[in-house]
Design a protein that fits this description.
single chain, alpha/beta, Rossmann fold, Alpha-Beta Plaits, 2 domains, six-stranded parallel β-sheet, 10 strands, 19% strand
Length: 236
């Protein structure tokens, strides 16, 4: 097990294999990501062992030596899902110290912990209780909107998918969406843009100019999104 983990590169570490951690791992595996679980509960580890291909470290994620066993120096991302904010804070601090470039996502249970976790080095902080509460309220206020959005994301591995496209390719630079003509070239639709300074443009107009540090969010079938990649590749 440890030998396999030591040979990984670009993998994702998930600290905590409770309910949140289990769902996180399931989603990552469905996207064919390489995952290493860190969990101190023998009961939870036994559950992970039900999958013979699952990689795990049995130990306390707040222990620096345990994190080192995950080959964190070569990891792409770390997600800490433990229920105690203090434990997550320690994991974030240690992970950032061990790997300056790793993407860190942390769970939080309290509003007051969000700023602390971000100052400690978390790129993103998620509050599952808030997300769940918002969803339940919107199922009453805007049920059709919620069901539509869930349909889109539940279809990610089927007939429709939201993809992220980097705009560093020369074809994008200083061209407008109209000039790129991506809809006719591939069938994929541009839903939004994340600009280089971190702002979002939702449903951008055809006259919106694309810059090299932007990212596009496109919606299409797997075939349409693949066609888009082929179009970009053909211009290299």
């Amino acid at each position: 097990m440890k030998k396999k983990i030591s040979q990984l590169n670009g993998h994702i570490i998930v600290c905590g294999f409770g309910n949140n951690g289990t769902e996180t791992v399931r989603e990552l595996l469905e996207h064919n990501k390489k995952v290493v679980i860190v969990e101190k509960s023998h009961e939870m580890i036994a559950r992970a062992q039900q999958n013979p291909d699952m990689l795990y470290i049995e130990g306390d994620a707040t222990n620096e030596n345990v994190l080192r066993e995950t080959n964190i120096e070569s990891a792409k991302a770390l997600i800490t899902t433990m229920p105690n904010d203090a434990d997550n804070l320690y994991v974030v601090l240690t992970a950032r110290e061990l790997n300056q470039n790793i993407t860190i996502v942390s769970r939080a249970s309290d509003d007051n912990s969000i700023k602390k976790l971000k100052r400690a080095g978390a790129n993103n902080v998620i509050m599952p209780d808030r997300i769940g509460g918002n969803r339940m309220a919107k199922l009453v206020v805007q049920p059709d909107v919620v069901e539509f959005m869930e349909y889109i994301f539940l279809q990610q591995k089927r007939d429709i998918k939201v993809d992220e496209v980097s705009c560093s390719h020369s074809i994008f630079i200083n061209n407008s969406i109209r000039e790129l003509d991506m809809r006719d070239a591939s069938g994929a639709n541009i839903l939004g843009i994340r600009t280089g300074d971190g702002n979002y443009i939702i449903n951008p107009s055809a006259d919106t100019i694309i810059h090299s540090d932007d990212k596009l969010f496109v919606l299409g079938s797997p075939q349409q999104n693949e066609k888009l990649r082929e179009v970009l590749k053909s211009t290299e």
